[in-house]
Design a protein that fits this description.
Layout (H helix, E strand, L loop, with lengths): L6 E6 L3 H13 L4 E6 L36 H9 L5 H5 L5 H18 L2 E6 L3 E7 L2 E6 L4 E9 L4 E2 L15 E3 L3 H5 L7 E4 L3 H12 L6 E5 L19 H5 L3 H17 L4 H8 L3 H6 L3 H19 L4 H12 L3 E13 L4 E7 L4 E6 L1 E4 L3 E2 L8 H8 L19 E3 L5 E7 L5 H4 L5 H17 L1
Bound molecules: flavin-adenine dinucleotide (FAD).
């Protein structure tokens, strides 16, 4: 197999996590170094979340929380101010910016770092399919038939979509079944069409907003097992202080009781529940790792949906638009477990089981899969990850979620040993850390991995 020129560092995945890693390596490098980032998509920093061109697809975090650097929390706001000098800084920091602007910010900071660094970065638009250990690091097998040798490898493969959970779904004709992340396919849906969105999290919000902003007039059904819709941030939210040590010392059930009490006490002082969740937010990794394995399992079984809607909130303006669509009867929520999706002559017949004794029966022209991010590593259908596990270079993370990693981000092999020169960040670490998807965690992990790789 032809081999590409060897690199010091190969970063697999050029979404936000991979791009942040490259950015931090470029900034920390104090000598010549070759970095390759492998990403089949055009452009870096976009990945699945930030590639959308829709202005309605806004960040779910205020601009003030989206810096690429822990040490400069206002850096994204500084960058925004260049083009929006007339907007007061506080207003910009509190705003929910279009996600495409965040991708442009990452690309701009990456370009600046490239100019200032002695290290060089190349973007190889190819997928990595395999990885094996070599004398001096690793050899990657790439989808174009070439190989690439690298002394250190960082896995930043990001979010994988979940399959539609209904028998028959995989054989629905193209166009009848649409993935929520496939915005061009959603844009092709006729304005009068009856649509069912399966899943009610942030991907549902993206799909619904893409349709509504394009003037969709047909009914939008939203089906999910729990029937919970994302909740909004509130404007002008006061800060709330809590004693995290108290929470971390409690088992799950007592912790949930303490949290409900904390919310009730805060609300009695006119502090919204959102402030309490935000006070917990920086400590979620500690809260996860201090739960016993049994309590983590209980959390995944009984609490996770409730946690998600309170933790992963949406901009108030977006929430208002969804509520308005519900109020006029266009958007209808259904709490049900989908069983089958059968292609009829001119529609898709969706059948399922609602709450006690209720039957779900919807005939729609299109079904949109918005079931969100796949956490189970075996179901991610990423050949690279499957091969890593097959070769014993990685093992599934706790509860089969993500990959097992050491606290510094090194991948643990089949025997649990943290490996030199092989790292993972982002959603691959979710089983170990739970809170490992959003930018505050990604930038911290990227900075730490950059320092370790350079030390090596
Ligand atoms: C709809 C949505 C909205 C979000 N909004 C926010 C927000 O407002 N604020 C926030 O902090 N977080 C948000 N998030 C969380 C989000 O997970 C992170 O912000 C971040 O974008 C994740 O980046 P990533 O690089 O880990 O993953 P991804 O964006 O999934 O990127 C991974 C990349 O790896 C590439 N890849 C995968 N396998 C291979 C391979 N074998 N070889 C080569 N390349 C490969 C893929 O092509 C992909 O581009 C959102 C997530 C979603 C899904």
């Amino acid at each position: 197999m032809p081999s590409l020129p060897p690199q010091d560092i190969a970063i697999i995945g050029g979404g936000a996590a991979g791009t942040l890693t490259a950015l931090h390596v470029l900034r920390q490098a104090n000598g010549p170094l070759r970095i390759a980032i492998l990403e089949p998509r055009p452009g870096l920093g976009r990945g699945g979340a930030h590639a959308t061109e829709h202005a309605e697809h806004v960040l779910n975090v205020r601009a003030g929380g989206m810096s690429a650097f822990n040490a400069v929390p206002g850096d994204f706001v500084d960058w925004l101010q260049h083009d929006m000098a007339e907007t007061p800084r506080e207003a910009l920091a509190a705003s929910f910016q279009p996600r495409r602007r965040f991708a442009a910010y990452l690309a701009a900071r990456l370009a600046q770092a490239q100019q200032a660094s002695q290290a060089t970065l190349i973007h190889l638009r190819v997928r990595a399919l395999g990885l094996e250990q070599a004398d001096d690091g690793f050899v990657l097998a790439l989808a174009d038939g070439t190989t690439l040798q690298a002394a250190a490898v960082v896995l930043a493969t990001g979010n994988a979509p979940r399959p539609l959970p209904a028998r028959g779904a995989s054989s629905l004709p193209a166009g009848r079944r649409v993935e929520a992340w496939d915005i061009p396919a959603i844009e092709r849906i006729a304005p009068e069409a009856r649509v069912c969105i399966v899943g009610s999290g942030l991907s549902m919000v993206d799909a619904a907003m893409a349709l509504l902003s394009a003037g969709h007039a047909g009914p939008l059904h939203v089906v999910s097992r729990h029937g919970l819709m994302p909740l909004p941030h509130v404007d002008g939210q006061p800060a709330h202080a809590l004693d995290i040590d108290v929470f971390a010392a409690l088992p799950l059930r007592a912790r949930m009781r303490a949290l409900r009490q904390e919310v009730a006490d805060a609300q009695a002082r006119s502090v919204p529940w959102q402030s309490v969740i935000d006070a917990l937010r920086p400590h979620v990794q500690r809260l996860w790792t201090t739960l016993s394995a049994d309590d983590q399992r209980r959390f995944l079984r009984h609490v996770v949906r409730l946690w998600d809607v309170h933790r992963h909130r949406i901009a108030p303006a977006i929430h208002q638009q969804l509520m308005a669509a519900m109020a006029r009867g266009q958007l209808q929520g259904h709490r049900a477990r989908l069983a089958t999706a059968i292609a009829g002559e001119r529609c898709v017949q969706l059948r399922g089981q609602g709450r006690v004794g209720q039957v779900l029966a919807l005939d729609v022209e299109h079904v949109i899969n918005a079931t969100g991010v796949e956490l189970r590593i075996q179901a991610m259908s990423n050949p690279l990850l499957t091969e890593l596990i097959g070769r014993g270079l990685a093992r599934p993370g706790p509860h089969g979620i993500g990959l097992d990693t050491a606290p510094d981000g090194r991948l643990r092999d089949a025997n649990g040993h943290a490996q030199r020169g092989l790292f993972a960040l982002g959603s691959l670490r979710i089983g170990t850390l739970w809170e490992s998807l959003a930018i505050p965690e990604l930038r911290g992990q990227a900075e730490g991995i950059a320092a370790l790789v350079l030390a090596q």
